[in-house]
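From the pipeline queue, job 12 of 40. The input is one protein chain; the requested action is below.

Action: predict structure.
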Amino acid sequence: MRYCQLVLGPAGSGKSTYCAAMQRHAEVSNRVISVVNLDPAAEAFSYQPLLDVRDLIQLDDVMQDEDMDFGPNGGLVFCMEYLLEPDGLDWLKEQLGDNEDDCLLFDCPGQIELYTHMDVMKRLVEQLQAWDFRVCATFVLDAGYMVDAARFLSGSLAALATMIPHINILTKMDLLNRAARRQLEMFLEPEIHELLASEHNVSRFNKKYHKLTHALGKVLDDFSLVRYIPLNINDEESLTDVLIQTDFALQYGEDLDVKGKDFEYPDPEDRE
């Protein structure tokens, strides 16, 4: 059995930083976590990838092809579709190797189109499962985005749009001041109706669209999607908490063999 996380979230939400931090934390915890870059538009990241999709196809090359004439979004869709073609899947499977008990992080593109009205990521998940991977999706959202009920609602709906059951993580907690952290606590395990009610009292826009926001809040409650795990990449305890949550979602370690170790006992004659 092999294990992997699909790291999802809007562009700039901290996906690559999350992958790099978890890779470094794993080394401290005597574990091996490898990272796979699946973003053909990535320019730079601070981790050493196990494999890089840009070795197969790059967004710049697609956009510069005069025959296709793609923009950034269209080019990205083409790249991901190309990866899921038979030749692309053969390349991916070969690059991933066949070592068991691996834990991989797939650093995914941030464009929401890949998750809302396309089945690209769904097909990728199904293919990974066919290769005996146990898959968990990790949706990361910038903590600075959660400053009021309206933005909280927007960010949560973006998470729901991925259409994949997942763990929600608030990144960049290390960039918030104390006041912002205290304000954020009310959004970690919120009462949706109370949040929206407080927003209606101060916003004329939300008063006008009270029924709409109430219905959206009910969707979040029904899907139990409003629980977030805060992450401070400079705090080892915070990283450990996130790793425990993802391990639980993946049921990591339940099928691992117990690793024994032969101890060498000193010769009694050497003590004399």
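Job complete. The longest strand covers residues 133-142.
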